[in-house]
C-alpha cells in the first residue's frame, strides 16, 4: 500500500542547486523534502574547483557539508529517486521509488544533466581524471602541460584556441569529422596549436597521477597527452523528460526570470537549465529559484491575489 506525506516543496536533486535551494527554503520556514538519487555529475572528479571557500574540496565532502547545514531546518533529506511528478489539484503528486507518494505545493527540479559519454575505448576510464569539460574547474593544476581537445564540432576547434590560454602545448583532434577552414588552420598555427585529423582509436589510460598516457590514432601512432578536454552530449534525466516541459533548442529546460518552468508551480535550477555549468552557478540559481518560489507561497498564504 502506498504511504503519503505532505510537504510545501519537494526538491529533486541534491547537488549544489538542490542543496542551496533547500537551504533557502528551510530558512524561509518551509517544510521541504530533498530527494537525491546520486551519483553527482562530477562524481568522477577528485576535487571541485572555482567555488570561493570550497576550492579543492572533494565533491562528496561538499555534499556532506551541504546536507549537514540543512539539519537546523524543516528539511528532510532522503537518498531516493523521484520516479514521477503529476499535477494533483493546485499542487503535485510526487511518486518516489518504493511506492511512496508525497503531496507538494511546489516542486523544484535540480536534477542536473546526464553526460552521454561516447563508446570510444578509454573515454570512461579517464573522464573526470584527465578528461574534463571545463578549464576553470581543472585547468590550473595542469597548466603548461601537454593538452588536447577532442573537437567533435567547429565550436570545439575554437575551444582549442581558447584553451591555449592555459597551455601552448595543444593538439586539436578532429578525427577528420570536422571541417577546418584555411583561415582556422592559420589561426591554430599562430596560436601554436597542432591539428590532428586522423581517426582516434582509443584513449590510452595511464596510472596514478597520470591518468592519461596518450591518444592512439589510426595506424597506431600515439600522441602523448597529459590532459584532454571535450564536451560530450548531454540529456535530461527521465523524470524531467516525462514531464514534457518546454526546452530550448539545446535541450535545456526553459525557465523564466523567477526560475519557473512552462508548468506553473514547477521550478528548475542548475545544469538542467543551461549550458553555462559550474557548481557555484548552479548553487546561485538554486537560491534564486527557491527565493522566488517562496515569495509566491508566502503571498498565496497571505491571501494575495496573483500570488505567482
Ligand atoms: C567531471 C566533472 C568535473 C567537474 N568539476 C567541476 C569543478 O571542479 N567545479 C565546478 O564548479 N563544476 C564542476 N563540474 C560541473 C558541476 O559538477 C556541475 O555544474 C554541478 O554539479 C551542477 O549542479 P546541479 O545541482 O545542477 O546538478 P548535479 O550536481 O548534477 O546534481 C543533480 C543531482 O540530482 C540527482 N537526481 C537526478 N535525477 C534524480 C531523480 N529522479 N530523483 C532524485 N535525484 C535525482 C542526481 O543523482 C544528482 O545527485 C564538473 C562536472 C564534471 C562532469
SSE topology sketch:
Elements: E1 3-12, H1 16-27, E2 32-35, H2 59-68, E3 75-78, E4 82-88, E5 91-96, E6 100-109, E7 114-115, H3 123-126, E8 131-132, H4 135-138, E9 147-150, H5 154-163, E10 170-173, H6 182-190, E11 193-196, E12 200-207, E13 210-217, E14 222-224, E15 227-229, E16 234-235, H7 238-243, E17 266-268, H8 279-301
Helix pairs in contact: 1-2, 1-8
The structure holds flavin-adenine dinucleotide.
Flavin-adenine dinucleotide binds at residues 12-18, 35-42, 44-45, 48-51, 81-82, 110-112, 115, 128, 133-134, 137-138, 237, 239, 270-271, 277-280, 282.
Instruction: List cofactors, ions and other ligands.
Output: flavin-adenine dinucleotide
Total domain modules: 2
Share of helical residues: 25-40%
Q: Indicate the proportion of strand residues.
A: 25-35%
Order of helices and strands: EHEHEEEEEHEHEHEHEEEEEEHEH
Outline: elongated
Query: What is the residue-averaged pLDDT?
Result: 95
What is the level 1 CATH name of the largest domain? Answer: Alpha Beta
CATH topology of the largest domain: FAD/NAD(P)-binding domain
Structural class: alpha/beta
Oligomer: single chain
Distance between the termini: 35 Å
Number of strands: 17
User: What is the radius of gyration?
Assistant: 22 Å
Amino acid at each position: 500500500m502506498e504511504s503519503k506525506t505532505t510537504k510545501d516543496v519537494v526538491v529533486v536533486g541534491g547537488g549544489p542547486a538542490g542543496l542551496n535551494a533547500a537551504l533557502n527554503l528551510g530558512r524561509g520556514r518551509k517544510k521541504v523534502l530533498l530527494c537525491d538519487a546520486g551519483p553527482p555529475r562530477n562524481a568522477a572528479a577528485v576535487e571541485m574547483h572555482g567555488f570561493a571557500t570550497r576550492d579543492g574540496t572533494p565533491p562528496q565532502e561538499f555534499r556532506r557539508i551541504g546536507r549537514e547545514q540543512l539539519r537546523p531546518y524543516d528539511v528532510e533529506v532522503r537518498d531516493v529517486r523521484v520516479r514521477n511528478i503529476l499535477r494533483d489539484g493546485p499542487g503535485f503528486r510526487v511518486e518516489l521509488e518504493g511506492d511512496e507518494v508525497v503531496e507538494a505545493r511546489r516542486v523544484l527540479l535540480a536534477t542536473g544533466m546526464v553526460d552521454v559519454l561516447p563508446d570510444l575505448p578509454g573515454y570512461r576510464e579517464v573522464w573526470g581524471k584527465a578528461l574534463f569539460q571545463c578549464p576553470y574547474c581543472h585547468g590550473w593544476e595542469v597548466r603548461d602541460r601537454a593538452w588536447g581537445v577532442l573537437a567533435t564540432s567547429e565550436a570545439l576547434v575554437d575551444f582549442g584556441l581558447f584553451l591555449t590560454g592555459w597551455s601552448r602545448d595543444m593538439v586539436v583532434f578532429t578525427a577528420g569529422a570536422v571541417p577546418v577552414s584555411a583561415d582556422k588552420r592559420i589561426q591554430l598555427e599562430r596560436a601554436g596549436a597542432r591539428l590532428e585529423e586522423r581517426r582516434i582509436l582509443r584513449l590510452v589510460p595511464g596510472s596514478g597521477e597520470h591518468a592519461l598516457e596518450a591518444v592512439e590514432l589510426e595506424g597506431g601512432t600515439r600522441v602523448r597527452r597529459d590532459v584532454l578536454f571535450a564536451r560530450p552530449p548531454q540529456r535530461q534525466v527521465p523524470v524531467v523528460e516525462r514531464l514534457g516541459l518546454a526546452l530550448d533548442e539545446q535541450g535545456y529546460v526553459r525557465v523564466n526570470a523567477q526560475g519557473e518552468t512552462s508548468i506553473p508551480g514547477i521550478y528548475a535550477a542548475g545544469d538542467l537549465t543551461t549550458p553555462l555549468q559550474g557548481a557555484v552557478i548552479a548553487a546561485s540559481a538554486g537560491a534564486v529559484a527557491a527565493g522566488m518560489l517562496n515569495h509566491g507561497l508566502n503571498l498565496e498564504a497571505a491571501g494575495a491575489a496573483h500570488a505567482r
